[in-house]
Specification:
alpha+beta, Jelly Rolls, 5-stranded antiparallel sheet, 4-stranded antiparallel sheet, 3 helices, globular, binds fe (ii) ion
């Protein structure tokens, strides 16, 4: 039996972007990612056996579409800030153990520097094998338990971009320069 490979994923994603564009094609790219998540050899093949924990490892990049495929393998439980992805779209797919996803809605008009009000819009568990789409501008946060592996597919290199980081309680927003390690 042959598994759906990273190369097939990048080729199918290229075809989807060519035929549907973005954001229309994002749901179909999510479906491609869910097929990839079902490949039990994926992380062993691209990261080694045994699979190491990794803060962030890029396992694929398609120069034509500038789609990146990254693996995050976390030994210990953790959570992110509330953030957007700057000019990029991002699809999060869980490979091992779930991530609690929270989607946030911005309520203010963005006209007051440093000020932002966000409210929780939706919360769900992204289970292993499932992927969730975040279009350009979507705001979210993640929370996960020990021994969680997830894959992020990004349209553009989000880790070289400026993104927004929100504090819901303090009602603040700041620019995070990810190239400098801020996020
Ligand atoms: Fe994110």
């Amino acid at each position: 039996m042959s598994h759906y490979t990273l190369e097939q994923f990048l080729a199918d994603t290229r075809a989807t972007i060519a035929s549907q564009g973005v954001p229309s094609g994002l749901a179909e790219i999510r479906d491609h990612l869910e097929k990839l998540l079902a490949n039990p050899e994926l992380l062993r093949k691209h990261l080694g056996d045994p699979v190491p924990y990794t803060e962030r490892a890029t396992i694929g990049h398609d120069p034509e579409t500038d789609v990146h495929v990254l693996v995050h393998g976390r030994a210990k439980a953790g959570k992110s800030s509330i953030h957007d992805h700057g000019p990029c779209w991002v699809i999060y797919g869980n490979y091992k153990n779930p991530t609690r996803m929270r989607r946030w809605r911005r309520l203010d008009d963005g006209r007051t520097a440093g000020h932002a009000e966000v409210e929780l819009q939706k919360e769900f568990l992204n289970e292993p094998g499932q992927a969730a789409v975040f279009a350009v501008g979507d705001i979210h946060s993640i929370e996960y338990g020990d021994d969680t592996f997830f894959i992020r597919v990004t349209g553009g290199d989000v880790e070289s971009k400026q993104t927004l980081k929100f504090d819901a309680a303090k009602k603040t927003v700041e620019v995070a320069n990810r190239a400098l390690g801020q996020r």
